[in-house]
Amino acid sequence: MTPGPKSRALAATLRQFESPNVTFLADDGSFPIFWEEAHGCTVTDADGQAYLDLTAAFGVASVGHTNPAVAAAIAAQAQKLIHGMGDVHPSRVKVALAQKLSALTPGDLGGALLGTSGGDAVEAALKTARVFTGKPGVVAFTGGYHGLNLGALAVTWRADFREPFAGQIAPFAVHKPYGEFLTELPDGVGAVLVEAIQGRGGIVVPPPGWLESLKALCEKSGAVLILDEIFTGWGRTGDWFACEHEGVVPDILCVGKALGGGLPISACLARPDVMAAWGVSTGEALHTSTFLGNPLCCAAALASLGELERLAAPGLARERGAFFIEQLERLQSQFPTKIRGVRGRGLMLGIQLTSAFAGELMVQLLHRGVIVLPAGDGDILEFTPPLVISEEEITHAVTQLKLVLS
Ligand SMILES: Cc1ncc(COP(=O)(O)O)c(C=O)c1O
C-alpha cells in the first residue's frame, strides 16, 4: 500500500508552493500520503486507501478523528459566531471554556490564558512565571520539547532545532538531565519547566518521586513549577493529568493538543495568586493575540472535553494501554535483537529499538496501512493512538509491526 497517484501528484504540487523545509517529500514518492478524511482511528488518503492511525495526529485526536460531537459543536458554532474579540468583547463560549478548564484541572489551577498552539501556552507560562517571581531564569531538561516559537525554543532541548537560530534565542534557560534529582536551583531561576513524561524526547517516564522533588525544590527556592502537559494531558497517560500519578499539583500548567478535539487551542493555567501577578487589565492586555479565545475553537474544546468525560478517558487509556503494552512486551521477547524495551503509561507508549531505525519502520508500516511516528533520537517508535482505539485495532497494528520486524 504505497502512496497512490493522487498523493504523488499532490506532493509534486506542494513541492512547488510550500516552503521547502516543512513537509518531507521523498523523491521516489514513497512518503507521505495526503489525508482526505479521518474518523475514529481510521485515516483515508486522497487515493481512497485506509490507514490505522497510531499517532492521533501528534496526540491530538484523543476522542477520535472527526468526533461526531466535536464536529456537531463546530458546525453549530459556525452558524452563530466564528470569530470574536477575545480580550475586548469576548464570546460566551470563551467564558464557558475558562470555567470548564478550572473545573477539570488539578488543585485550584485556573485563570486561563488561552492560546492557539502548545508553544503559545509555554510562552504564556514562561511570562507568567517571570511576572510572579521577578526572576527570568528557567531550568528545563535534556530531551525536553516545548515548541518552536523563539521563547519556547529557549527551553526545548534539541540542538538541530536551535542552532539555525543562534543569536535569536534568549539565554535565560539552563538544561539539567531529565530524571536526575536536583539539590538546588541556580541563581536567578524563577521557574522549573518540565514534561511529566517526555513525548517527542522518546516517551521517557521519570523515576518515581522526581516530580515531587522538583515541586519541593521550587517551594524551597521561591520558584514555580511549570508542568507541560500538552501531550500527556486529558487522560492520555491513564490519569486526567500525568502529574496526578505522582500526586503533584504544579503552580502553572500548560495544556493543548487534545483540548480542541482537532481545532487549534491551548491554555496556560496557574494557581490564583500566581496568575494574579499579571494585575488587572486597564485596557491593554500584556499578553494576547488576535485569535485568543476564538469562539469556534472554544466550542470545539468544550465538546472535546465533554467527550473525554463521557468516555472516561483516563480509564480507557489505562485499559487499552495495558492491552497494548502486553502485546508489545510479547513482541519484544520475540525480537530481542531489535527491541530493547517497552515503555510509557496509558496510551502514551513506545518501543526502544536497539538502533535508530524507527524512521525506516515508519515508512514500512505506512506501506502496510499503519501510521506511526519516530521519537527520541530515531531509536523510539511511538504509539499515541486515539483513546478510542479498539483491541482489534491494537492487535492488527502489532501484527503489522511483527511483519515488518521479521
Ligand atoms: C510536550 C509538548 N509541549 C509543547 C509542544 C508544542 O506544541 P505545538 O506544536 O502545538 O506548538 C509539544 C508538541 O509536540 C509537546 O509535545
From TrEMBL:
The keyword Transferase applies. Its cofactor is pyridoxal 5'-phosphate. Belongs to the class-III pyridoxal-phosphate-dependent aminotransferase family. Keywords: Aminotransferase, Pyridoxal phosphate, Transferase. GO terms for molecular function: identical protein binding; pyridoxal phosphate binding; transaminase activity. It comes from the Bacteria. This is Acetylornithine/succinyldiaminopimelate/putresci ne aminotransferase. The keyword Transferase applies.
